[in-house]
Each structure stands twice: as C-alpha cells, then as structure tokens.
C-alpha cells in the first residue's frame, strides 16, 4: 500500500491561496489528491494559486470564493461542494484588541468565521463521507487554546471551542470510518504575522517562548495535516496535535 497516495480523493481546503492552507493544498496535490481551493473574496488570487499549486491543472482547477463569516456567502460555498472526502478547515479571522473594547460585531464575526462556518461545512460534507465509509476532517487550531494571547480573547476562546468540537465529532463518526483531528500551530511565518513579527522587540519576545527557537513555516503544519489524512493517520481521531516548537509546554 502506498501510504502517501491520495489519488481518487477529493479535498476542500478553506483559506488555501496563501500561508498554511496553500502549503497543505500543495502537499495534497503532490500526493495525488484533487483539491478545491478557497479565498475570501478574490477569484484571480485563486486562479494564480491554483496554477502555482498545479501548473498542469489536472488536480487543482476548482476554486470557491466567499466570506465564511457572512451567512449568504457561506451558503454559496456550501452549494459549490460535492463528494468531498477530505475537509481542511484552515481559514480563520482574529482581532487584536483590548478586552474592554470588544463589541458584539467583533464577536459575531469571529464566531461565524471561526466556529459556525466549520459546523456548516462539516454538515455539508458528512453525508458523502458516511456513504463512502471514509472521511478526513482536520481543523486548524492554535497554541492559544492553551496559551491565549491577552489581546485576542475571542479568537483564543473560539479555537478552544473548535478543539472541543473535534472531540465531539470524532466520537460521533469514528465507527463510520471518519476521523476528525485538530492541528494547532504556534507562531507561523505567514502574511498574517508579517507586521507583528517585523517588530524586532516583539519577535525576540516571542522567540523566547518557543523552545525550538524559531518560527514555524507553513510546510511544518502541512506535513502533519497530510499525515492525518493519509492511511498513516488511519488510527488517530479526536486529537489536537501542536505544531508550535514546544510553545505549549
């Protein structure tokens, strides 16, 4: 058996035009998986990303555009999905703001994007997985599940909620051949973190909290996801795996 072969499998990866999602899409295509990519708002960005991931256009040619935090756009995304064997819930939003300045609009945006959209997308793909008696669901969590950032109270709370949801879903669907797991990155050198990490003092402070002494690359997280959705990860479900250089210790 070729444990790295995902041919005849079809994946949907949210937020997959850059960063961790892009790295995951690239690796799954290399393993023979057909991949549908996603961006919040930019069709051209999707086309360019798809070409970079798969220049031949044989395995990565479909894309879906829509804001996961807006109900009508989430409904559109759901309507575009069919026969998804692997669901990777990578996209999220985070607000860096003092706790006392949080308001309902910020809360709703984070809950809708970071939790409700995950529930809705799982509901969309789970019937096919049940019929196939095979499925892989992976959420992208955060080290903030156990070490919350003081200026991201809602984001950290939502990521903790997601890891609990993973345990619940894993129990419900394990007997049907469906695994559900959570990969929790630490500080990853992606576009989202460029501004914060460009502050040398802040970057040095963060590095002091990471035993390995360096920031993660998107590919570090992608390798764990690929493992979990392959046959090598067949017996793992309901788990959170930290990809954080030891930051959670």
Automatic annotation (TrEMBL):
Species for this entry: Sphingobacterium zhuxiongii
Protein name: SDR family oxidoreductase
CDD domains linked: SDR_c
InterPro entries assigned: NAD(P)-bd_dom_sf (IPR036291), SDR (IPR050259), SDR_fam (IPR002347)
Family: Belongs to the short-chain dehydrogenases/reductases (SDR) family.
Origin: domain of life: Bacteria
């Amino acid at each position: 058996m070729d444990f790295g072969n995902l041919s005849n499998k079809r994946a949907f990866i949210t937020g997959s035009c850059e960063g961790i999602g892009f790295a995951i899409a690239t690796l799954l295509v290399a393993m023979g998986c057909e991949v549908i990519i996603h961006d919040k708002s930019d069709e051209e960005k999707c086309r360019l990303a798809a070409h970079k991931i798969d220049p031949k256009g044989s395995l990565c040619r479909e894309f879906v555009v829509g804001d996961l935090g807006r109900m009508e756009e989430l409904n559109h995304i759901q309507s575009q999905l069919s026969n998804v064997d692997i669901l990777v819930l990578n996209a999220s939003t985070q607000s860096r703001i003092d706790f006392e300045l949080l308001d309902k609009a910020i809360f709703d945006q984070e809950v809708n994007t970071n939790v409700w959209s995950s529930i809705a997308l799982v509901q969309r793909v789970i019937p096919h997985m049940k019929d196939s008696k095979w499925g892989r669901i992976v959420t992208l969590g955060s080290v903030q599940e156990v070490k919350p950032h003081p200026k991201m109270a809602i984001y950290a709370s939502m990521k903790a909620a997601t890891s609990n949801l993973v345990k619940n879903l894993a129990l419900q669907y394990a007997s049907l051949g469906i695994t559900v797991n959570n990969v929790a990155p630490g500080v990853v050198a992606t576009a989202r973190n460029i501004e914060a990490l460009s502050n040398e003092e802040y970057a040095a402070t963060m590095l002091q909290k990471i035993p390995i002494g360096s920031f993660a690359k998107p590919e570090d997280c992608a390798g764990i996801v690929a493992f979990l959705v392959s046959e090598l990860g067949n017996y793992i479900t309901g788990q959170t795996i930290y990809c954080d250089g030891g930051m959670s210790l």
